[in-house]
Target: YKT6B protein
Amino acid sequence: MRLYSLSVLYKGDPKVHLLKAAYDVSTFNFFQRSSVQEFMTFTSQLIAERSALGSRASVKEQEYLCHVYVRNDGLAGVVIADNEYPQRVCFTLLDKVLDEFSRQVSKMDWPSGSPATISYSALDGYLSKYQVQTLRP
Model:
């Protein structure tokens, strides 16, 4: 059971854009890592774009399961995991991350934000914490 990506996006008009993301591509071949990361970024944006405000969904893309949660305020989160990772845990993680993100990052920064301008550093910690939790019996 693995988590590969955790992204926070903003679903505005007319497009969805990435605010912050964390990736774990350590299980991939060194030469594949950047293209795998690009695929995950693109897929996260596409799934958030196609999801309605206030919705949750799980979408199968190749050998991955992508879990998306788009809040009514336009803030969206996407987790990309393998097929074995529990769906309920993914949505719990998304709830927690989006709540914390909305408390720490001003809503006024969402429409114009980017990974370079948004200061929110908790995603890597969540990705590794939820990675390790699933490995314990």
The first strand starts at residue 3 and ends at 11. Residues 108 and 123 are 20 Å apart (CA to CA). The mean pLDDT is 92.
